[in-house]
């Protein structure tokens, strides 16, 4: 628990170390989107084929989140976080040195394996370092690293890759991973081994109807985000008609929007709506559909694409902390695996979204079609959420077996 001297407005320094980890993963996940054309050219593959590197990363998160979280159930969380960031660093080095496309795929998977576990464990650790009324702020602090990655990390690594070659982007990630390991080792309290932790108890929380609904909605709705943003580079050049160098600034605008959305999310959760999480989730899904609907037109303008991507960034990161906080609240008795599973859900979306959008491009509908695909997914997610709420109520109303 934090020292009494910290005061109600100050978060522990350990949050900074956890934010460094989310910064590393945010940069790793989104930087590939900015150098996708360069990677495709370097390996002599098409842009949709290079887009499979995004799906490979997402698959790594989906596989690694439950497996690594479960494997580390009995380890002290600081030690586990250091080991996981070591895995990230090794995968980044393999990506940077990959002699061929197949090795690049392997490197991306290894880099991604600890993503969900680190995000989930980091969020849980953050909530345990502060009083209950500061938990939303602590989670926001952890995710601030992810939003800063999109303001600075991904755009700067994209600029570096365009100037010095795409491999330099991934060597930068090696350095970021090493710094994160040191930050965790120095700033995160050692803490005891998790008391009473068991894989069976963690798995049991994933069967709760409201958790299943949240995770399923996250997969479908956020596939919309990745269907659009996954192809940000070709949208900037082929749809908006801007030079390649503008991609960095569009990505930075998206990141600024994410940062604003992250801070707005904390305010919403700390206000009267914080007591109505279903309303918050519904509002976030409606806003996502609205932003993608607007982006269909805004993507065609050299100025308006900045507006559209900035707006998308805002609504995305209004939703992410809300969903993460809600899942931890619903599984407070065994939250680690379920918190990690949120990021597995986001990255299942990251696998599905670019794949579906890539099919639209390969089908001859052009790069602009990715936003139409994205809107369809967002609306499907909204319908799933609203319909699922009724199903969950009926399940929970059933009398318990005697």
Short description:
It comes from Patulibacter brassicae. The chain has helices at residues 14-34, 36-43, 47-50, 52-71, 77-97, 101-112, 115-128, 135-164, 166-187, 199-205, 209-229, 232-239, 246-270, 277-298, 304-330, 336-365, 369-397.
- Largest sheet report: none
Mean of residue pLDDT?
A: 85
CATH class: Mainly Alpha
Tally of domains: 1
In CATH terms, the superfamily is: MFS general substrate transporter like domains
Output the structural class: mainly alpha
Order of helices and strands: HHHHHHHHHHHHHHHHH
Give the termini distance in whole angstroms. 41 Å
- Residue stretches low in confidence (pLDDT < 50, at least 5 long) are 1-8
**Number of contiguous helices:** 17
Rg on CA atoms, Å: 20 Å
The coarse silhouette is globular
Which fold name is given in CATH as the topology? Growth Hormone, Chain: A
Count of strand segments = 0
Assembly type of the chains comes to: single chain
State the helicity in percent bands: over 70%
| Gross CATH architecture | Up-down Bundle
Question: Could you walk me through the main structural features you see in this protein, from its secondary elements to its overall organization?
Answer:
Pfam families: MFS_1 (PF07690). The chain crosses the membrane at residues 54-73, 80-103, 109-130, 142-164, 170-190, 211-234, 246-266, 278-299, 305-323, 344-361, 367-392. Residues 14-393 form the Major facilitator superfamily (MFS) profile domain. This is MFS transporter. Its main location: membrane. By secondary structure, the protein is mainly α. The chain has one domain (12-397): Up-down Bundle (Growth Hormone, Chain: A), CATH 1.20.1250. It is built from 17 helices and no strands. The protein has helices spanning 14-34, 36-43, 47-50, 52-71, 77-97, 101-112, 115-128, 135-164, 166-187, 199-205, 209-229, 232-239, 246-270, 277-298, 304-330, 336-365, 369-397. Helix 7 packs across helix 16, helix 8 runs antiparallel to helix 9 (166-187) and helix 13 (246-270) packs parallel to helix 15 (304-330). The longest helix is centred in the middle third of the chain and has 30 residues, at 135-164. The radius of gyration is 20 Å and the shape is globular. The model is unreliable at 1-8 (pLDDT under 50).
């Amino acid at each position: 628990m934090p020292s009494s001297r910290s005061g109600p407005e100050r978060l522990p320094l350990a949050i900074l170390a956890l934010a460094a980890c989310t910064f590393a993963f945010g940069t790793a996940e989104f930087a590939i989107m900015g150098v996708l054309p360069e990677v495709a050219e370097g390996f002599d593959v098409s842009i949709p084929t290079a887009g499979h590197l995004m799906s490979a990363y997402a698959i790594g998160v989906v596989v690694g989140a439950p497996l690594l979280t479960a494997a580390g159930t009995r380890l002290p969380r600081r030690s586990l976080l250091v080991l996981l960031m070591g895995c990230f660093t090794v995968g980044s080095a393999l990506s940077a040195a990959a002699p061929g496309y197949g090795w690049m795929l392997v490197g991306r998977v290894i880099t991604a394996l600890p993503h969900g576990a680190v995000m989930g464990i980091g969020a849980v650790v953050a909530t345990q370092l502060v009083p209950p009324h500061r938990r939303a702020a602590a989670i926001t602090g952890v995710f601030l690293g992810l939003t800063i990655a999109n303001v600075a990390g991904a755009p700067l690594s994209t600029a570096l890759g365009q100037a010095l070659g795409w491999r330099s982007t991934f060597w930068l990630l090696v350095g970021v991973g090493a710094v994160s390991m040191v930050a965790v080792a120095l700033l995160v309290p050692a803490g005891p081994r998790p008391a009473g932790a068991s894989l069976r108890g963690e798995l049991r929380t994933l069967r709760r109807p409201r958790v299943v609904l949240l995770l399923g909605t996250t997969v479908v709705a956020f596939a919309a985000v990745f269907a659009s943003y996954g192809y940000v580079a070709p949208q900037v050049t082929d749809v908006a008609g801007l030079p390649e160098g503008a991609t960095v600034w569009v990505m930075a605008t998206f990141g600024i929007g994410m940062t604003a959305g992250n801070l707005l999310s904390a305010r919403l959760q700390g206000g009267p709506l914080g007591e109505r999480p279903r309303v918050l989730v519904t509002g976030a899904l409606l806003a996502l559909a609205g932003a993608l609907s607007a982006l269909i037109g805004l993507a065609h303008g050299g100025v308006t694409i900045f507006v559209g991507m900035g707006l998308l960034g805002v609504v995305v990161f209004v939703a992410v902390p809300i969903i993460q906080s809600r899942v931890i609240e619903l599984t407070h008795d065994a939250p680690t695996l379920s918190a990690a599973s949120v990021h597995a859900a986001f990255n299942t979306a990251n696998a599905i979204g670019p794949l579906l959008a890539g099919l639209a491009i390969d089908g001859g509908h052009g790069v602009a079609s990715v936003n139409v695909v994205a809107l369809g997914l967002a609306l499907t997610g909204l319908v799933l959420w609203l319909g699922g709420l009724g199903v969950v109520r009926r399940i929970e109303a059933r009398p318990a077996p005697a």
